[in-house]
Specification:
Blueprint lengths: L4 H21 L5 H21 L11 H20 L5 H20 L15 H28 L6 H9 L6 H20 L2
Length: 193
């Protein structure tokens, strides 16, 4: 991806940390939680690798088709899972966006930068930007009620005990924050295309 080096390293750190947390979430006792966390870990680490500044490491041209194939397989898995659980539709969009970016990087000659000149913003990039901007706003808004409830506003002593008994890897607000981080990362990556 092209963009300022310091922003790229921040994106690498955000995505790698999110991927690492998702790996920890895979230890959950809830099977659906483990499956979702596995896909999110793949996305986090894949985004971290893709965001490494080109000045530091430029993958060989053969890496992009491999990248597209890995995320294409993840997209097919998300499509299959979406027939049962609609929550996987977001995973489908995310993995498809990763395939799109890998194909765009494969089509770019080594050392060249994307130039959108008079053609403007490609339609698919614009649609993905709109989707992820909406997703980030929605995911951020979903975290607000959890933060208010956790602060103790209107909650009794029993609510704190119930929240404390949940393992930190199974906490829904942490999973939402993880998804929000990846949405922000995806938005940043799409902006650099």
């Amino acid at each position: 991806m092209h963009g300022p080096v310091s922003a790229a390293w921040l994106l690498v750190a955000l995505c790698a940390a999110t991927g690492a947390y998702c790996l920890l979430r895979m230890r959950s006792a809830v099977e659906e939680q483990r499956r979702a966390a596995g896909g999110e870990a793949l996305m986090g680490f894949g985004m971290a690798v893709m965001a490494v500044p080109a000045a530091v490491f430029t993958p060989p041209q053969w890496a992009w088709p491999v990248y597209a194939a890995v995320f294409g397989a993840a997209a097919l898995r998300a499509l299959w899972a979406a027939r049962v659980t609609p929550n996987h539709l977001h995973h489908l969009v995310g993995t498809s966006a990763m395939v799109y970016m890998a194909v765009a990087m494969a089509a770019t000659p080594p050392g060249a930068h994307h130039e959108h000149g008079g053609a403007g913003l490609p339609l698919l990039t614009g649609a993905l930007l709109l989707y992820f901007a909406g997703y980030v706003l929605r995911a951020g808004a979903r975290l607000l009620p959890a933060a208010v409830a956790a602060s103790g506003a209107g909650a009794g002593a029993g609510a704190g005990v119930a929240a404390g008994s949940v393992r930190w890897g199974d906490r829904p607000e942490l999973a939402r924050a993880c998804r929000l981080s990846m949405g922000i990362g995806m938005l940043a990556m799409l902006l650099t295309m």
